[in-house]
Amino acid sequence: MNHSRSARVGVIGGGIRGGMFARALQENPQSELVAICDRSPGVLSAMVAQLGVPGYASTEELLAAHPDLDGVVIATPDFAHREAAVLCAQAGLDLMIEKPLATEIDDARAILEAADAAGVRVMVGFENRWNVRYSAVRTRLGADGDPRISAQIINLNDTIFVPTEMLSWSSKSSPAWFLMPHSLDLACWIGRTHPVSVYAVGARDRLTEAGIDTWDRVNAVFTMADGSHVALNSSWVLPESMPSVFDFRYEIQSAGQVVHIDGADDGVIVYDAQRGQLVQSAVHERAGRIHGVPIDMVGDFVRLLRGEPVDVPDARDGLLITAAIEAVHTALETGDVVSISV
Predict the structure, then answer these.
(1) Using an 8 Å Cβ cutoff, are 222 and 232 in contact?
(2) What is the pLDDT of residue 28?
């Protein structure tokens, strides 16, 4: 692209995340939100009214109408990334894809192959890498060039509101697909290693009884390439009385030190007659503009489009996480320790 002008970007997927990304692009002085796309007529009309840009029902229509795009943000449901990503890559567009890259290894490989064939870049939205809490810990543990981590334990859970009310497609996902990509990429990034095998157990009770065919909880233990272990615990059925819709607790055990992080608690809690609620500030508004961790991530995608040097998770990082979470589901079904390879 011509680096003297704003990056021209489209957004595919108009849900909670897609809407946030679209607004972030619109408010970024170095980018122009050109158009949005969503298959739902209701969602699409609402986004067009809110953002004041053209809307399209399909990726093909968007690409045909705007051949001068520089990049696209893909924020469709997790299982639906492949078609849009491959079409956009074949059109020569750089991509930012919401995590996980895909929910099937074949889909992830197809995206990677299309991007490589077209010579375009893929950034995967593992947004924890932009969180100063975790980057500070990574820097501290790696200060001597050897973090010497022996174990990482991450509890990332949601209340039952998420699979029963927030998502219309939870039966096509699971706690492992929806939550563990965040946790596992974070563990790999902080530990500077990658998983080689996994064992997993889980339970199907409440959601199946509610007509949602997916796991209530998944517990997975990964053996990493450096010999350390990562234990990930994710549930989708915490009570809605919890003070936050998500629960994120992280422990790192290394030589001579232990790190504890509460990722859900920003230190502010408001109590009313029913319960206390944590006030979240990961995304917040100031002077009419949104700020926060995922907004910084979008900013780096814009910088990538403009040719500036940025260190971001790419398609190969995404492929690894997809392979690992697919292995978790194989382990759940078989009861075996499953090797992970890409």
Answers:
(1) yes
(2) 96
